Amino acid sequence: MNKIFKLDRRNFLKASAVAGGGMMLGFHIPAANAAVTKESEVNAWIVVNSDDTVLIRVAHSEMGQGSMTALAQLVAEELDCNWSQVKTAFVDPRLNITRKKVYGGMATVGSRAVRTSQEYLRKAGAGARDMLVRAAAQTWKVPAGECTAKAGVVTHTASKRTLKYGALAEAAAKLAPSADVALKDPATWTIAGQPKMRLDMQDKVMGKAVYAIDIMLPDMLFAAIAQSPVFGGKLKSYDEAAIKNFKGVRQVVTLENAVAVVGDSYWEAQRAVRALPVVWDDAGNGKVSSASIAQFLDEGLKMDGAPVARNDGDVAKAMTTAVKTVSAEYRVPYLSHAAMEPMNCTVRFTDDGLDIWAPTQNAEAILNAAARASGLDPLKINVNLTYSGGGFGRRGGAAAGDYVDQAVLIAKAVGKPVKMIWSREEDIQHDFYRPISSAKMTAGLDASGMPVAWNTRISGHSILTTANPSALKDNMDVGFLVLFADNVYDVPNMKVDFALRKTHVPVGYWRSVNHSQNAYFRECFVDEMALAAGQDPYEYRRKLLHKAPKQLAVLEAAAKAADWGKPLPAGQFRGIAQIDGYGSYVAAVAEISMKPDGSPKVHRVVTSVDCGYVVNPDTVRAQLEGATAWALTALLYNEITLKDGRVEQGNFDRYRMLLAADMPKVEVVLVPSGGFWGGIGEPGSPPVGPAVVNAMLAATGKPSRSQPLIKRGGAASA
Amino acid sequence: MINLTINGAAHAVDASPDMPLLWVLRDKLGMTGTKFGCGIAQCGACTVHVNGVAMRSCVTPVSAVGDAEITTIEGLSEHGDSPLQKAWVAHQVPQCGYCQSGLIMAVDALLKVKPKPTDAEINAAISNICRCGTYARVRDAIHDVAKA
Ligand code: FES
Ligand code: FES
Prior knowledge:
Helix content of chain B: 25-40%
Helix content of chain A: 25-40%
Bound molecules: FE2/S2 (inorganic) cluster
Number of strands of chain B: 5
Number of domains of chain B: 2
CATH class of the largest domain in chain B: Alpha Beta
CATH topology of the largest domain in chain A: Aldehyde Oxidoreductase, domain 4
Shape of chain B: globular
Radius of gyration of chain B: 15 Å
Largest sheet of chain B: 5 strands, mixed
Shape of chain A: globular
CATH class of the largest domain in chain A: Alpha Beta
CATH architecture of the largest domain in chain A: 2-Layer Sandwich
Largest sheet of chain A: 7 strands, mixed
Number of helices of chain A: 20
Number of helices of chain B: 5
CATH superfamily of the largest domain in chain B: Beta-grasp domain
Distance between the termini of chain B: 44 Å
Oligomer: heterodimer
Order of helices and strands of chain B: EEHEEEHHHH
CATH architecture of the largest domain in chain B: Roll
CATH topology of the largest domain in chain B: Ubiquitin-like (UB roll)
Strand content of chain B: 5-15%
Distance between the termini of chain A: 47 Å
CATH superfamily of the largest domain in chain A: Aldehyde oxidase/xanthine dehydrogenase, molybdopterin binding domain
C-alpha cells in the first residue's frame, strides 16, 4: 500500500515512463533532460516541469474520439499555459484509488468524457493558475491581484516583472489551493473552443502510436483462443493429439468456456487452435436461430399487459376521433462492434502483482477485472494504458472484461508473460451485441393531418439483461425506450409500452446504444405520417416541434444547409431526421438516388449539431463524419444472425463494412447555442440512417421497415 | 533462416516459410506499426509494400517475398514527414489510428502509379476498412497531395 502510494507525484511519472517501455503516450522525458528537469505536481491533474513544459493527466481513454486532446484543452485554457508545451499522460487507475477518486469516473462511455469532467478539469486548471500567480506574487512581495498570467508567464503589471511557470512550479506546489477560483466565460476562450491539432496525430501517421496489441515483452508467448460457439456453452473435451506435431506450440490452457493454445507466435497459436478438435456443451441453446428469435420478438409486439412507460391523455379514445390511421412495424437485428483492433490482452505476473495491457474504455474496469481473475489486491495491479483501436462500447462496461479474465488466467497457467489475441472471428462471434428490437407504431391523424394519438410498442432485448439485471424492475427498461418515453413531438395522446425479450445472446452498449434502433423507428414513422397527411416531412416536423426549440433549431439548420425544398438533379431525393441524446441535438439530411437493386446510393449527408459548448470544433466534425459511416454500415450491411445457437458471421467478408467507395460527402454544421455540455461520440449517427430511409420513401413511396437494406445470408465463414 | 530486406535493412529470421509476413514483422521482429485486423485480406490494416506494390501481409507467406524490398509504415519516412503523412496530419485524418498504417501504405502505393487519382480511381484502389469512418478526410488528403 505504502509502496504504491509513493507512486504519487514524480515517482508516478518515472514509473509510468518505464512501464510503457519508453513508449508512454504523448509524453516521455528525454533521458538527457530527466536528470535536470524538475517536476512539480501543482495538483492532481497538472505537473509543471522546470523546463516550462506542462503535463496534463487524462483519466479517460483515447479510442479515436479525440477527448485526450479536448480534455487537455479545457485544463490548459484555465491554466493559461502555452499550448505548444502541453503533453498528456493517462492516469494510473491505482492513483484514483489511493487518491480517493480525485480523477472521478474513468469510464469513457455514453459520450461523457467531456461533459462529466469539464467542471472539475476547468477548476483544476484555474486552481493551478491561481497557485502559480500567488507563488509569483510571493516572490515579488506584491499582492496577487496585481499579477496576471498568460501563455505560461506571470506578469506583475506595474513593474513589468515576469516569471515563467517552470520557475514558479515548485513554490506553487507548496501553496494551499484557494477554495474558490472563478472560471472563464467560454466566450473568451483561446485554447478550448479552437480546432487544435490532436496530440496523437503525428504518432498515428508513423505507425508509432502504441496499442495494447503492440506490446512486446521479453520471454513473452502468444495465445490464441477458441470460445464456446454457442453462448453459455462450456468446454467438454478436446483432442490435443491432433496438434501435437504443430510447430511453435507450447501449451494448451483450458478455461471454463474456452480453450487457448499458447505458442511462439500468434499465428502458430492461432493455426493450432483452429485445428484443435473441441467438443462443447451447448447449454440447451443449440436450437436457437434467427427465425426463433424473430418469432419471440413478434410475440412481444402482440402480447397483452406489457408494462407502460408513458401514457399521456387517452390514446384509445383519441384514436376513435382520428380521420386516418397509420400503422407500421419496424425491425432491426443484433449488431457487432467490430472495432479494428481485435480484443487482446497482455499479462505479466511479477513478484507480488501483475502488469497488464489491454485496449479499454475504462482503465478501472481493467483493474477490477484483473483483480477478480487473479485474486490480487487491486493496488498490486499495474494497468498500462495505451491507445485503443476503437471501442464503440465493446470495451467499456464491467460485463465486458471477458478478455481480461481470460488473459490473466492463461498467463497464470503458463507462468510467463502472455499476449492473447482474439481472431476477428472470435471478436464477431463473442461480442456483447447491439440488441435486436422491433417496434409497432400506430398513429391517428386528425383532419389537418397531424397526429392526435400515437401508440408505440417496443419488443426487444434489453441491455440490462446482460449488463445489470438487478436494475431491471418490473420488466421495464426505460433506457430502451429513449426517443419514445421522452418523445418531444407534440402529440396530445401518447402511449409507450415495452415487451422485454431475453435470449441467450449477450447484449451490450454499442455506439449510440438505444438511439441506434429508436431513431430509425421513430423518424421513419414520422415520415410515414407526413406521407399519409400529404405534407412535407420537414414542415411536418417543424409543426410537431413547436414546443422543442433546440430540436427545431438543429432541424432548421440542417434543412437550410442542405437546401431543403430546392430542386435536386433528376433521380435524387432528400430525407430528413432529428434526435436528441447524450445531452446534444442532431439533425441530418441525406441525398440519395436509388440503385437498380433497390438499395440507396448516398450522395451527401448534411448534419447539424448543437452540443452546447464546443471544446474542439474539428474533433466534433470528425466524430460526425465517422458517425455517418457508422450509421450507413449498419443500415446497408450489418446483421448478426444465429443458427444452431451460434453466430453465422465471422469476419469482414460476411460482416461487411462501408468502404471509401460508399462514403458520401459529409457536411457538418455546428450550431452551438452554449450554456450546456453535450456529448459528441454517439448522437451523430442515429439521425443518419432514418434520413437515408426517408429519402428512399421520397424516391419510391414505399417504406423500408427492416435493416439491413442489403441482405447477406450464408453460413458462418469461420 | 529466412533473409529479408525491410526498410533497407537486412534481417535473418527463424520462421516457418508459410508464416505470413505480417506475423514475421510483428511477432518475430517486433515491428508493430503494421496491424492485424482480419487475417483474410479483407481490411488492409496489414498493408506493406513489396517492391513498391501494396500487399496485404496477413496472407503473404514470408517465403513468397524472396529478396524483394519490403517497406513498412516505419520505413515510409524517417521523421513522418513525407508529403502524404503531412497531408494526413493537416487533415487530421486518423481517429483511433489503428487502420491508418495500412491505409497510408495503400494510398502511397496508389500515388506511385497514379499521382493524381480521380475519385473513381481512389474508390477502386483503396478498399481498406476504417471502422472509425475517416474516409471523407482520406479522400481530401489524397487530393491535396495530388495537387502539390
Ligand atoms: S489483416 Fe490483412 S487484410 Fe486484414
Ligand atoms: S482510424 Fe480507427 S479504424 Fe480507421
